[in-house]
Amino acid sequence: MNEFNGEIKKMMIILSKATLENVYAAFVLANGARMEGIESQVFFTFFGLEAIHKKKMEKLHVATVGNPAMHMPTMLGGIPGVEALVTYAMKKEMEKLDMPEIHEFLDILKASGVKLWACKLAVDMFHYKKEDLYDDIDGVITVGDFYKHSEGLGTHMLFI
């Protein structure tokens, strides 16, 4: 009989939305796992693919509409320019903390051993090609393939 002590051995992070706050949350969690010696993999699906799309990754923004953490009325978040202003302010705060830009953060993740996977269904749906994506992704895989990578005791899956 195998005993499992509850130790986290693998973090499988699914990123489905490429808002600035979601991408950085996923990247910080993946990087933190590696720093703790935990295997880490990120699966980019649907709009999360923009975080690894070469032409879109540096243009990500903060979601102001429908985001209760913004503490502003939804209508205010929809006024032209508000989203750009909030995104600018957040990027300035992240600079103060020496947070890397998206592409640099991806390089850091790869250097630490994080596996980066693009969802085949989403790539096909948005008519992307592998060349459109960050050069160092580990592959374009199906959901079934992602589940195979998730096998084993101590695997935790997180959907962002």
Description:
The structure is a single chain. This protein has six helices and five strands; from the N terminus they run E-H-E-H-H-H-E-H-E-H-E. By secondary structure, the protein is α/β, with parallel strands linked by helices. The chain has one domain: Hypothetical Protein Ychn, Chain: A (3-Layer(aba) Sandwich). The mean pLDDT is 89.
Would you summarize the structure shown here?
This protein has 160 residues and is an alpha/beta fold. The chain has helices at residues 20-35, 74-77, 82-96, 102-112, 120-125, 143-149, and strands spanning 10-15, 39-44, 115-119, 139-141, 155-159.
Order of helices and strands: EHEHHHEHEHE
Arithmetic mean pLDDT:
89
CATH architecture: 3-Layer(aba) Sandwich
What distance separates the N and C termini? 34 Å
CATH superfamily: DsrEFH-like
Radius of gyration: 17 Å
The tally of domains stands at 1
CATH topology (level 3) name: Hypothetical Protein Ychn, Chain: A
What's the helix count? Answer: 6
Write the layout of secondary structure elements.
Layout: E1 10-15, H1 20-35, E2 39-44, H2 74-77, H3 82-96, H4 102-112, E3 115-119, H5 120-125, E4 139-141, H6 143-149, E5 155-159
Parallel strand pairs: 1-2, 1-5, 2-3, 3-4
Helix pairs in contact: 1-4
